[in-house]
Amino acid sequence: MNTLLKIALVLVIIGALNWGLVGFFQFDLIAAIFGGQGTIISRIIYSLIGLSGLYTITLLFTSEKARM
């Protein structure tokens, strides 16, 4: 598995955990750490997580041998 894919997967996992916190406890961890949803750093992180989600869609369409 290449480095870019590993980074993307970590960001997708962070995003999934954040959405779980929002769903269960109405707590946005990324916003809490970086000063709110509207701050530029939070928006960058949300954008990176979204792009990572799009990138990891490729996992559905590639064989396991091709990823290694």
The residue-averaged pLDDT reads 92
- Secondary structure: helix percent: over 70%
- Number of helical segments with 4 or more residues: 4
Oligomer: single chain
For the report, how would you describe the main beta sheet?
none
Report the portion of residues in β strands: under 5%
Q: How many strand segments? A: 0
Task: Give the CA-CA distance, first to last residue.
Answer: 5 Å
Domain count: the total is: 1
Radius of gyration: 14 Å
Alpha-beta classification: mainly alpha
Give the low-pLDDT segments.
none
The secondary-structure element order is: HHHH
Shape: elongated
InterPro entries: DUF378 (IPR007211)
Organism: Aneurinibacillus thermoaerophilus
Protein name: DUF378 domain-containing protein
Keywords: Membrane, Transmembrane, Transmembrane helix
Provide key terms for this protein.
DUF378 domain-containing protein; transmembrane; transmembrane helix; membrane
Walk me through this protein's architecture.
By secondary structure, the chain is mainly alpha-helical. The chain has one domain (3-61). The protein has helices at 3-25, 29-34, 40-56, 64-67. Helix 1 crosses helix 3 (40-56). It starts with a helix and ends with a helix.
